[in-house]
Amino acid sequence: AETADGLKEAGHPYYLYTHDGAVRDGGAYVIGDSAGLATVDLGEGLGPAIESGILAAHDILGTATYDKAALTKYSFGGLAQWIMRRTVGRYHTRGRA
What are phi and psi of 59, to 5 degrees? Predict the structure, then answer.
């Protein structure tokens, strides 16, 4: 049987979502993996990176506040919301003027 003896780690670590750490310092914004925004359930980082970039842009334009609390923490939470909008929401709004 093979064991892990002699194997070396490869890759690099990244931070999962946490409330710790600033995401803004004056006019500098920290987004995506560098802000520790990877989702807690799957460790997915692309969605939170895009979402944080868009929110930072809105903050720059003055139409939103860039805050970690406003960002998605779970991959499946966002997926469930998307499914509800695409299915239930579509049928719920039919027949309304």
Answer: -65, -40
Task: Give the Cα separation of 69 and 55 in Å (integer).
Answer: 11
Structure tokens at 85: 């909008």
pLDDT of 97 reads 47
Nearest alpha carbon to residue 17 among 1, 2, 29, 32:
32
- State CA 97 to chain mean position distance: 35
Instruction: Report pLDDT digits (tens) over 24-62.
Output: 998 899 998 888 888 888 888 888 899 999 999 999 999
Nearest-angstrom CA–CA distance, 70 and 35: 14
d(CA 88, CA 83): 8
In three-state secondary structure terms, 39 is: coil
